[in-house]
## 1
Amino acid sequence: MVNSNGNLVSAEDARIALQNRGYAYGDALFETMKVVNRKILFWEDHYFRLMASMRILRMEIPMSFTMDFLRDEVLKTLEANDLLDNTARVRINVNRVEGGLYTPSSQEIDYHIVVSELDAPFYTLAETDTYQVDLFKDHYVVKGLLSTLKTNNKVINVLGSIYARENGLQNCLLLNHEKMVVEALNGNIFLVKGNIIKTPPLEDGCLKGILRKQLIDILGSIDAYELQEASISPFELQKADELFITNVISGIVPIKKYRKKTYEDTVARELLAKLNVRIRLA
């Protein structure tokens, strides 16, 4: 079952019109979340990111769009799919209503919620030595505020994913126009060198990731490491001790190989344990 503006309909009956602005112009946002036994992980962060993104895109936020309302809509959709007491992936799509060409006729919005089952309630590290990445250099991320949002314009991620599949890679790293590493295809990137942990700043064009925020908070409480939000050059990748990717569905994903360089995952494991503790105590 799919939640379409509060109405539960079967996936077969869920349709969007050709005039849907998310389809026609990419005039849409989405928020992907992990839910474990009725608990939306980092729900407050997700909610406020969505609200901030809607304001940036000048969408009209309905008065009903409170934190409690949207949480209840998510739980209602999970219940309709027999996933209320399971682990699930939830995606909230928000698009401006039909009407107009580039200039919309209205700032009002439609929303849709789709869910699917996941396996592990807590984050784990895959025991593999084959997670290999490379740079995707066919196209570049544009620095700026819009690149930090989860809009429906993800063509570069799609093309990068095709490139990764064609070249036997598990992921690719994206660059901005200044040839700085911005993020992975499906998450933020962290680099470990000694006791320094770096992640690209939002100003470089990386996604304002929820797990990125959580790890920045965690690292702020660990004296053994120094966190730097600073640009990462491709030349730094082969000098790093560790590289890992973060997103709310997978948690922390260690990169094992970049070109001829192989990496450890010691810091990734330490941070993953602290992340799971944070989830249990929340």
## 2
Amino acid sequence: MNFTDLSEKNRKQLHEEILSHAQNIGGKNAFLQMIEDIRENGAGLLSEKSTAFRFDGGNISWSKSIYKDTLALLFEAVKVDGDMFDGLKPKKQKSTLNMLKTLKPVIIRVKPKNMKDGEGFTLSIVETDLKDNATISLMFKIIFFYPIGFAKEALAYDQ
């Protein structure tokens, strides 16, 4: 997905959300540095038993360990924009649904090293809407999977 593919409303909304998160951990540079540190260690760090990751500007923790098979399904789901169940065979649908149920309660907390830099922020891996559709959180994708250029575009967006 490209930032420019989003609607004007979604770009503005995403810009405000990502800017708020950046300000809560020390600014744009701290936010981008966090993403770069995650890239250096790979998104597989989520399967670490410690459920924590330290980066230069603070730390990231998540509420429970994520097993490698769940993480592999998550990698596949991240690639899909829209309905993750379109075109899946029944067995694959069941495993994807189980992955979403497993990840739904997981909360990721990002805290800056210096509390003067901000209060940090939290995010979920799975978002649900009123229609009981579940999707992988866009902010989660930006931080852990999308190229850093996506985050830079969102931060630099000028309405």
## 3
Amino acid sequence: MSRTKPRVLDVGCGIRKYPGSVGLDNNTRTAADVIADLDQHPYPFRDSSFDELRAIHVIEHVDNVIKTMEEFHRVVRAGGTVRLETPHYTDFSSFCDPTHKSHLNSFSFRYFGDDDAGFGYYTQAKFREKKVYVKLLALWRYLGFEFLINASPRLRRQWEYYLCYIVRGKVMEFEFEVLK
């Protein structure tokens, strides 16, 4: 029984496209296979064309996070994976880049899941949260705060509410399963 290689879309691939993926970017000076405006939907791919989508330091640059997540949902098959990485809004890098349009926290994508905070009517696109991991600045990581914050959603929520301006976040990694 031969197993086919998963088809991966690297959105905003830049010059370091994920190995074996189809690269999508809006800049012609990148390693992209397809050049398209990431804010113009639909992307030039059929529905459910990919097994996995990666958007590493991309979602903070788009005009409309919800519409972009809906597009990610459209191009990835049911049960497929969407991987995102973005700065936490308390990190210096979130605000020092003038191309960042959104400043996000570890609960910013709740509208797309079961815990939609009563705002599930914003979108029909649904995802199951498989992983959320918050990386902290080095000092806090060495002191063990990164481990504690990521130990449970409850501890992460307490950190977001009360401590994130002192124990600042750096980068967040998300992994979602596409539900259709």
## 4
Amino acid sequence: MSGRFILPEPPLLSRSVFDRADEIRDDTDRMRTGWTSAKVLLVDPDGRYPVNGNGGLHWLDAATVADEPPADAVFLGVLDTDRWTRRVDHIDGPTDDARRGAARLSADEAGILATALGILNWHASARHSPFDGSATVPARGGWVRRHVASGRDEFPRTDPAIITVVHDGADRILLGRQAVWPDGWYSTLAGFVEPGESLEQCVIREVHEEVGITVTEPRYLGSQPWPFPRSLMVGFAALGNPDDELAFLDGEIGDAQWFHRDEVRAALAAGSDWVRSDAETAQPSAAGEEPRLRLPGSISIARTMIAAWAG
């Protein structure tokens, strides 16, 4: 039995269809003209952003921010009107962070937020050339950093990583817990792609390094931007043998267990996840014990893949 499954819909951060409007990034006059009716999302150094009363993104009228696009603002695209983002030291009023708050956003706003965080995080680490250390400045609406001296352009960096549902082709799934995570927190296995390596090769290597078993038939499921700080998570399913002995070879995994489909379904139904506040957390069992299994939050592709397998 192969246990093949698909994602019923894209992960939350991969559902947006807003217009990124690449052709506008080179048109300085068009960006200035659009600024008069544009909206701006502020983001602080911790990745927090302002929210309205419903938990949605709180956009500022661009005209209240500056008379024209500031040099450090990034053009995100067009959603009804031009949308920009800008990093600031402090945000007044209520804020949220994407790990907790993105689930309250529409598909387009979740995608715009992921874009804003990813590009701003890149800018924070790209102020100097990786080649000679010379200064760089933003250009093309924030989508490149240009060498002051040579005019050479540096482009945004996205780090590819695989994330894998390891299952036995029947009713068991292998989930791991990093050594630094609280008891009961489990997720799929993941790791960054190395140079000279395909995605499928990375799946096999990372699973072996983390839990000591060799998986087969890596199969692509879907992908999701993960702007913490600027990754692309590429989701796979792969087959493993529950009779193989687990060994935590690279030291990242503190524990891994095979869970039955019924237990995973129960955890999904109970809403037992990592990001719920104390007031929202599911009640302990009648015996007063914490749930044995808590799953990643709803914005992660890990949660989407686990739910698709369990279903």
